[in-house]
Specification:
Hypothetical upf0131 protein ytfp, 5-stranded mixed beta barrel, 2 helices, mainly beta, 143 residues
Length: 143
Amino acid sequence: MSEYLFAYGTLQPGLAPGEMTSLVAELAPAGRGFVRGLLYDFGHYPGAILDPKSTQKIFGAVLRLPESPDFLPTLDAYEEFDPFAPEQSQFIRTAHAVTLESGGDLLCWVYVYNRDPGDARVVEGGLWMSRREMPGNAVKNPG
């Protein structure tokens, strides 16, 4: 079982929504990296569809998981992943090799989007930021 998480969206430090801030604070930064595939923008969160043969990269943070046995199940609930019904889950948690910015690969848990992305916009450059982080998007009423 991997001791690391590859976060490319709202589980990245500084991008977590209020209800996840304290949980994400328990993740220890271990570097930056990328996986190959397409990253889709669904508004308040992104979704990755991995493809090792893709020329496109999805960038994110590599984070060390705390030793708490309840930690991954809590993340699973947030990502709407049910390990007993993966076919019905919005995301699937899977172990995948992440190429580290510092060199080499590291096996990490990755939440992969498990639906048809439809007409969602592909995030060019593979680096997602929340709507409030995007240039020109001021948040008038942060929830």
